[in-house]
Amino acid sequence: MKPSAFGFARCINNDENVLGVEDMDIDLIITAAAAICGIIFGWIGCRRGIKKDYESEGALKSNTEYIKRRIDDVLLEQKDTNRIINNLTERVTRVEESSKQAHKRLDGIEQRLAN
Q1: Is the C-alpha dihedral spanning 50, 51, 57, 60 positive or negative?
Q2: Distances 51 to 36, 70, 77 between C-alpha atoms, Å
Q3: pTM of the predicted structure, to 2 decimals
Q4: Contact, 9 vs 2, CB < 8 A?
Q5: 26 is in which domain, residue-wise?
Q6: How many domains does the chain have?
Q7: According to the UniProt record, where is the region Disordered (predicted)?
Q8: Alpha helix locations (H) across the chain?
């Protein structure tokens, strides 16, 4: 047996290969097979990477959508709070006017009682 450059043992019978394939042809076949496997595995790895990119992009998009919805909820709550505050401000103003009138009446009663 005669070892090749790749470490494979080849059977040589009177300087001819038993399979009918020369050493150069076997090396060429192995090289071509390795190149094809490299292309296939590279393509598979690329597809896997693209799929992971799309998955992470989808997660990011869903997180962004969640944040948008929460911001909309907060804005609606803020509008409700502002409306309530405006209503309370109007009520406080009316109560102040009413108490001012009540004080004027009480001052008038005090003056009549003092005279």
Answers
A1: negative
A2: 23, 29, 39
A3: 0.43
A4: yes
A5: 2-114
A6: 1
A7: 96-115
A8: 23-114
pLDDT digits (tens, 9 = 90+) for 10-49: 554 445 555 555 667 888 888 899 999 999 988 888 888 7
What is the reported pLDDT for 1? 47
Give residue 29's identity as a one-letter amino acid code: I
CA distance 34 to 53: 28
pLDDT in tens, 75-84: 999 999 999 9
CB of 82 closer than 8 Å to CB of 74: no
CB 38 within 8 A of CB 29: no
Asked whether the beta carbons of 59 and 51 are under 8 A apart, the reply is no
Place of tokens 């948008």: 68
Residue partners of 16: CB distance under 8 A and separation at least 6: none
